[in-house]
Structure formats: structure tokens, C-alpha cells
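Figure 2 data, in text form.
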Amino acid sequence: MTTGHRYDYDLITLGAGSGGVRASRLAAKYGGRVAVIEASRPGGTCVMRGCVPKKLLVYGAHFANHFEDALGFGWHVSGATHDWGAMIAAKNKELDRLEGIYGRILRDAGANLIAGRGVIADPHTVEVNGKRLTAEKILVAVGGWPAIPDFPGKEHVITSNEALDLPERPKRIVIVGGGYIAVEFAGIFRGLGSEVTLVLRSGQLLRGFDQDVRATLADEIEKQGIKIRRDCVVHSIEKTPKGYSVAFDKSEEMIADGVLYATGRTPNTTTIGLKEAGVKLDKKGAVVVDEWNRSSVESIFAVGDVTDRVNLTPVAINEGRVFAETFFNKTPMTLDYTNIASAVFSQPPVSVVGLTEEQARKDYKVRLFITRFKPMKHTLSGRDERTMMKLVVDKATDRVLGCHMVGEDAPEIIQGLAVALKAGATKAQFDATVGIHPTAAEEFVTMRDPVPEKDPAAAEM
């Protein structure tokens, strides 16, 4: 390495995912000597095993509904068939392209991309491919990995990683879990023709989301033929000549061609030397960091899912950005985690920004505005699908605290409303905004009548 420096690099980043690449690219752009170590493919979870390939499959699944809906508009689409293998091949070609782009981004910035598995040897040293590299700062951006609980037959299940690369589509699939990954894959497989059963340990989908969102999505996906088994636990799985036998509590069982576990993700921290280097981890194995993304060891930092704060790709990217600005561009900054919008690419999709009704009621007296309607498209298609929109408003200040939507184009609509919430918009300002007609989005600025108070003793609005 270059002589005249105390360390080989100013920054060594473990992980070439969204957060690690953004931090490393900017650090190199600002003059830092940077190495990025990646054991798999540059791009990380989102690009290679998550949001991007999953969204491509969601698009593919949508066509089934489009073909059905077209009949109501005078189109006759007959004989349409789906080639799972062709879709997976097209998806893989796109991932290869994106992997090349991520490598190019780092090279163009002047960062050194090293293929291999990095292990922290001490607060300033990383071992990779039998070599020891030193750095003034180490950034841990290794993300998370699907977690599967221990039970008899665990070896027969797949996770979201494998679901994106199955050689053929299972005709019958059991999906265990009720979070966003579970409902997204339920929509993909159901849209492409599989029989889908969702198995929930709890009583409802999407824990942590607004109750009206959860109930609406459950109603909509059940209309599509997705079966939901609530308050249910898988006891064991056995491979039989007829398929996988999935045994539940109460001695019930069912046969499936595949079992997908989407029961959460855990940080990738167990075997990269963090504990040995003195880095504090929480009970889930996440790196504990302060507002500057610094761990308990002064020279070691972490961003993204490995910190288990807000596990979203744009959050990891922005954490990487503020890290680089702070430590390599002499522009100290932190990330504001309030009013971060998110989406679930279920069918129909969900998107939210701000507080749920339940969260808001803990600190505010609230007014609620809810609308449910059949989208204009389905007045002719005949599809039995309804959209739900909800606003949560602080009664004292009139500020909009939360926007929630279940329905077509929800993520595209909520992204714009996220700007409004970030700017502190009030319900009066929503009301004063002229809608675009005819759209679903205009409903967010035409909801005039609040939901009646649940508590009759509550003060008048």
C-alpha cells in the first residue's frame, strides 16, 4: 500500500450493499482512501435478493389481473400463458446489469472493491483472503439475513432468497409469516396461479401498521383466494411422495409443493469479529450505534439493516451519506428518522407515512378521516377491489400526523404526501389543495368529514 500513511486505508467498508456503497463512494469522492469488501455480489440485499428482483416479479404477477380487467373494456385476451423460467431469466439478466453498475460506481469513485469475506481482527484491522488490511475507520454495512426458527423439518423450507430463484413455480405454497415479505410473495405466487396459504402466529397481517390498513389488506387478499390461517403455528414439516406435509397445532396438516418462511431477518453480525473487537450488540445481534452511526468502539461504525433501526434501503443510503459527509467532508450531519414513508408491494399495495392511529393516540388527541371506494377502473372491469385511505390529524394543531393507503398506486401517491408531512402540512392545507380529477390521489385532499369520536365523552371537535 501507499507509504507515508499510518493505515493502509482511511476507510474499510464491510458490505457492498446500498448503505456501504453510498458511504464508500462519497468518502472516496471526498479524497478518502477506501476499500470495500464484499463476500457475495455488489448491490446487497435490496438489489440482489430483495426489493429489486421482488418488484420485478410483482410486475410480472400483475399481468394476470390486467388480462382479466381488460375484458370489461372490450379487449379479448385469450390463450395467455406464463413462463416462470423466462421471467426468472429476464430478472437475472437485469440483476447482472445492476451488479456491473455497482462495481463501476465504486471504481469510478476510486474505491478498491475486494471480493472476499472480511473479518474484523482489531479496531483498525480487517482480515480478508488471508491478508490483513488496516484503516483509520471501519464501516460495517453487512445487512441482514432471513431467520428460520428451529423445528422438525426446517431443512425443507425456503426463504425469500430462494423464492426469487425457484426453477419452477410451486402449484401449492404455504407462506409462514404475516409481515411485508410474506404478503408480497403471497401476491406474487397467487397472481401467477399458485394456491397460497398464509400462516400467521398472530391474528392479523402486518404487525406495526395501522389497524385499518391491516384489516383492509387482509380482506382484499382473501377475496383473491389467498387463505389466511390465523393464530396458527407450524409444528413440523415432512417430505412425502405427494409433497411437503405441513403439520399445525391441533393435529391439523396440509400438503404443499413448497414452504416459504418469512418470519423475520437478523443482522449478519455473528462471524465477522465484532464481539471480539469489543463492539456492543443488542439482543438481536444488531450493532448498537449513536446518532453519528458510531459503535461502542470509536473507530468502528455501522449503517443499514445491521443496526436494526429503520430497515429500508433509502434509510441505509442516507445513513451512508451522512456518515461520509460527517467524517470525510467536514460537514457534520445526522439523519432525521421521523416521517419516513414506506410501502408494501402486496396486491393491492400498501403505503404509509407518519404515525398510525394507535401511535398517535399515545401523545395526541386526534381526528381521523377515512374513505373507502371502488377505484374508477373497476367500475368497468368489475373487479371486487376497494381502496382505503386514512388521515390521522392532531386535533390541537391541525397538523397531519399520518397518511395511510391500501390500493393501486399507493406508493406513488404516498411519496408525494411524505414531502407534505416533512413540511408540517395541516389538514386545512390538504383541504385547500385542488385535486387532480379523476384520480384516486385526489381523495386525500377531499376528505372533509372526520370519523365520529369513538368515545362519546370526548370533547367536541
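Caption note: Residues 9-146+266-328 form a domain with the FAD/NAD(P)-binding domain fold (CATH 3.50.50.60).
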